[in-house]
Specification:
This protein is an alpha+beta fold. 30% of the residues lie in helices and 13% in strands. It has one domain (12-181): SMI1/KNR4-like (3-Layer(aba) Sandwich), CATH 3.40.1580. The chain has 6 helices and 5 strands. It comes from Streptomyces seoulensis.
């Protein structure tokens, strides 16, 4: 399990890094403000993890040109290719994973109701969608549960946390944004 991140207080160095990367880019969406952030949190029964929370309130609430490939979504938006099957987002329900899960191998043995329910919870529980790289590859910020503050890639084959051996980088929202800004591959040197 990944640990070591402070998701309750925004580190000024992380805020400065996010401001430098995001605020000056073309297509940056103006910040939502604290009132909008607190209203969103109250509606969903959560507190967004830092530094994402401060970023949305004070720096920028989305970026048309990434990260990821198709842009950083404004708070509470879903990508245009998001399946209506996963329409209900239950942010207050804990994200169900603590490590990568590649379910495509399990599906080959037959998709059971239990496996389908567990997959659905990965898509629906405890995460806020950050954006998509297309082809059903979504980036999510975990907002509840032990993985709170981590960014995960979720697609039709499985779910992988950013900042691990499967997807090297510095864990957390700032690490994910910085990784993108440096033009590095999500999957290491592939």
């Amino acid at each position: 399990m990944m640990t070591g991140m402070n998701t309750d207080t925004c580190d000024p160095a992380e805020a400065a890094a996010l401001r430098e990367i995001l605020a000056s880019r073309p297509g940056a969406v103006p910040p939502a403000g604290w009132e909008a952030v607190r209203s969103f949190e109250a509606r969903h029964g959560i507190v967004l993890p830092e530094p994402y929370r401060t970023c949305v309130a004070e720096i920028c609430d989305g970026l048309r040109a990434g990260p990821p490939y198709r842009g950083l979504l404004p708070l509470a938006e879903t990508p245009s290719d998001w399946s209506p099957y996963f329409a209900e987002r239950l942010l207050a329900e804990p994200f169900p994973l603590a490590e990568a899960w590649l379910w495509e191998e399990e599906e080959e043995a037959g998709l059971t109701q239990e496996l389908q329910a567990r997959q659905d919870s990965v898509f629906e529980h405890g995460s806020l969608l950050l954006g998509t790289d297309g082809c059903g590859m979504y980036w999510a910020l975990i907002v509840t549960g032990p993985q709170r503050g981590h960014v995960w890639m979720i697609d039709e084959n499985g779910a992988i946390p950013f900042g691990t051996s499967l997807m090297p980088g510095t864990p957390g929202f700032t690490g994910w944004v910085s990784h993108w800004a440096e033009g590095r591959s999500w999957f290491g040197d592939v």
